[in-house]
Design goal:
435 residues; 14% strand; eight-stranded mixed beta sheet; alpha/beta; four-stranded antiparallel beta sheet; 14 helices
Length: 435
């Protein structure tokens, strides 16, 4: 080409959660069925959308307004409804004008980082959700900056690590919190959230919190919204319906701006994000119209409670199957519907394998693992793919120095769920020679 096309940092955009699908499809093409544990799509895992919810959406499709534009910020009635939900918590108060809709949180996250000065860094957790870490790295033209989540402490953040990185890196302007966390399934206690706010106050930082799993907690755990402990700090909460309704194909998420007048720079950022949405005209209107009707429906809370209880049961089943396997760190999940399992240091080596009976699959996996300098958890994931036809995601792909993998707790059919994780547990033991 006449000139370079890609800006520095563009190579940081990666999404192994879907990238591994290409290899799984190669196996499927040879006539094998695949167990998909790579992505948080409830619909793919036999989750049933309630009939009453479908009826609401069907009725909206009969109305002409569903086919028009929304306000650039989003449907006003829906923004008022969501602002009221937040304000009932009694913490930081917002109005409908402080809510901005996007076509999914991926769209919102990309826009947020797009308008930051490249030298302005937002430090996020590690293991990191790929959409956040990739977008932050791409905007900054370098690798993301992260603080550690500790698998030896229920995946809670290492606050000393965070504090020291913030203190000695003046380019950090904000802290990203994912609560409940993806990929670990950890839920932050109130005192930890208060610790984030305290650091933000000391160093005059923006707080960004991804709360899309806020209402997906179980086994006695409740997530504390950042708005309850925020005080007067500027902050952005990222929310959506993809997992909660569940309606991932709606691609509907939104930002809530807290204390937008507390900082001139923050106020300018909020206005810029709104201006960018005006250039696009608006986000998709159908799911926005559905939100207040669905969430106000008398069956909604009962539906969500049952769905959470079901995930909680599956969390307990997973703990029973995987919790005592030597060579791994296992933490029961508290929220969202993921679990990150980490291998103990030193138990992986480049000579480990799983038996693969089909020579066609053997040829495939030998080609995959020949990649130079391959992280050892990715090697395990590829052998699991070929040997057991279970598709998981390596934790090295979540911007982490740890070695392990992420699975979901989404499979609705008990016998399928238990069979999947029994096979996974046996494969781990064989791979580590712990049979």
């Amino acid at each position: 080409m006449r000139q370079l096309l890609l800006r520095p940092g563009a190579e940081e955009l990666s999404y192994e959660i879907r990238g591994i699908v290409k290899k799984a499809r190669q196996i499927e093409s040879l006539g094998y069925s695949m167990t998909w544990e790579n992505i948080g799509d409830p619909i793919q895992k036999n989750n049933h959308v309630p009939d009453w919810m479908k009826e609401i959406i069907s009725d909206l499709l009969k109305e002409d307004k569903t086919y028009g534009y929304a306000d650039s910020k989003g449907v006003l009635e829906t923004r008022r409804f969501l602002a009221d939900l937040n304000n009932k918590l009694g913490g930081s108060q917002i109005s409908a004008e402080d809510i901005l809709f996007f076509n999914g949180l991926g769209d919102a996250i990309a826009k947020l980082y797009q308008f930051l000065v490249p030298t302005a860094r937002i430090i996020g957790p590690s293991p990191a959700y790929s959409t956040h870490s990739s977008a932050e790295a791409a905007h900054a033209n370098t690798a993301p900056i992260t603080y550690k989540l500790d698998p030896d402490n229920q995946w809670l953040p290492d606050m000393d690590d965070l504090y020291m990185k913030v203190k000695y890196n003046p380019s950090i302007v904000g802290i990203l919190i994912i609560n409940p966390d993806n990929p670990t399934g950890m839920v932050y206690p109130r005192e930890v959230l208060e610790g984030f706010v305290k650091i933000a106050e000391e160093f005059n930082l923006l707080l960004v919190v991804d709360e899309i799993y806020q209402n997906i907690t179980y086994n006695g755990i409740k997530a504390v919204p950042l708005a309850e402990v925020l005080g007067d700090r500027p902050a952005i909460s990222l929310k959506g319906i993809s997992k909660e309704f569940p309606w991932p194909g709606a691609r509907c998420g939104w930002m809530e701006f807290y204390n937008r007048e507390s900082s001139k720079e923050f106020s300018k950022l909020c206005q810029t994000l709104e201006n960018a949405k005006m250039i696009e005209v608006c986000s998709t209107i159908l799911p926005q119209l559905a939100i207040p009707i669905i969430m106000s429906h008398p069956a909604y809370h009962q539906y969500r409670e049952k769905a959470n209880n079901d995930i909680g049961k599956r969390s307990e089943w997973m703990a029973e199957i995987l919790g005592d396997i030597p060579g791994i760190k296992f933490n029961p999940t508290q929220g969202a519907f993921y679990n990150t399992i980490v291998f103990d240091e030193g138990v992986l080596n480049p000579d480990q394998k799983l038996e693969v009976e089909d020579p066609r699959l053997q040829t495939l996996v030998e080609g995959w693992v020949s990649e130079p300098n391959m992280p050892l958890d990715k090697r395990f994931v590829y052998y699991l793919l070929a040997g057991e036809r279970i598709c998981v995601v390596p934790i090295s792909s979540f911007c982490s120095d740890l070695r392990g993998f992420r699975v979901t707790l989404l499979e609705e059919k008990e016998e399928v769920f238990k069979d999947t994780f029994t096979r996974l547990g046996k494969a781990i033991r064989r791979y580590l020679g712990k049979g």
